[in-house]
Amino acid sequence: MPETLFTNISQLVTPAPGVQRGAAMGDLSVIPDAALLVSGGRVQWVGPRAEAPGMVQEHDLGGVAVVPGLVDPHTHSIWAGDRLADFEARVQGVPYEEILARGGGIRSSMRATGAASVNELVALARPRLHTLRASGATTIEVKSGYGLDFRAEVRMLEAVRRLRRELFVMPTLLIHVPPTEGRTDYVRAVCEELIPEVASSGLAETVDVFCEKEAFTVEETRQIFVAARANELDFKLHADQFHAIGGTELACELGALSVDHLEASGPAQIAALAASNTVATILPGVTLHLGLPAAPGRALIDAGAAVAVGTDLNPGSSPVFSVQLALALAVRLNRLTPAEALTACTVNAAAALGLGDRAALAPGQRADFLALHSADWRDLAYTLGANPVRDVWMDGRHV
Ligand code: NIG
Ligand code: FE
Fold first, then answer.
1. Which of 40, 68, 130, 214 has an alpha carbon within 20 to 30 A of 6's alpha carbon?
2. CA-CA distances (angstroms) from residue 54 to 60, 249, 364, 398?
3. What pTM, to 2 d.p., does this model score?
């Protein structure tokens, strides 16, 4: 791959590489009239245009702002069927948890997804993932979790593996809701059969659990995390979405990569996250779509936690197909500043996936970056309902 010098960049805006906590989340580097040198799919150099190396092929970006490619650390992009009837019921007052308790909600997505082939799942997920990428996501996490039955879980992860050839997707095994009968045996089989199978086949490197009154208990979550660790897998958690039942504290104690949702988190959960290396991932699309309280993004940052933002793209709680929209909503709903929101959607989201090689424009990082339509990067946090991202590069390639 030849060296290319990207020029005519009104502002090159980036956080420093690696996870950023607390007040450091607001520290961005903003270089006016910048240039970006890319070689072999990596960033070689960034700086003012006037100081750029000469004698290299140039690519004129037309006077717009450049930011790192965004990372979406939490999606359920693979599902079959739809939740349109749930949506209609919910907006007329039936709560999400009640729909789930009645056997609808996630369980209805499980029935449809469990009946689909790998080919069908790939065909359903592909356009969703391309839409996310066009919104700025150059790395996207994708969970299983609509399988219930283990063969269906494995089919979901095989679909993610197939999509890996065309997009940068990170697979996660999600243990989502227990069966209505035999949950003790189910958790045992997850720990003794499914997790070892997924680990040995390399289908996922991370295990996630939905820890909630209508899903798994804290004790069941602990068993699943212990099994993940014994199989050398990372783990993360859906916690405090409706009730703070102790999942966040457990995840921080055991060293989870991230705890996600946090709409019902209070001072104890905020303190646990701030005192740990676990990333606090907030999902403002859920607040918007389910009308839940907003996760305490502002309080988490003020307490010193590392906050990330994701879309949580899924049919039930967050039909948000844009990582840029998630960023923009975090500013309105969770009271992040635009600078903090960019950090939350770049290096901190990468850290939530255990990745330190991307999402900052600094030498040695992957050359994943976005050219906006605007000369001012803040349009990324400002725009609602249109796409401020003009062009996307992954590994130095225009996609
Ligand atoms: O992250 N809360 C649990 N899981 C998903 C929702 C999945 C669904 O409703 O289908 C979430 O919100
Ligand atoms: Fe989720």
1. 130
2. 14, 53, 20, 22
3. 0.97
